[in-house]
Structure formats: C-alpha cells, structure tokens
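Protein: GDP-L-fucose synthase
Species: Salmonella enterica I
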Amino acid sequence: QLGWYHEISLEAGLAGTYQWFLENQQRFRG
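Structure follows.
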C-alpha cells in the first residue's frame, strides 16, 4: 500500500533536486 506513496515521493524528490540544480547551476559554472 506504500508503493504508490514511495513512487510519488521519489518523483517529487527528483523534481526538487533538479529544480535546485537549475537554480544553482550558475554557481557550479563559476
């Protein structure tokens, strides 16, 4: 029953990480 919840939270986590990367990529480029 937790399978669907885990899948959604995983997608949300990846989306959050990607959004964070987009916001901070200028910092990585220098």
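Remarks: The mean pLDDT is 83.
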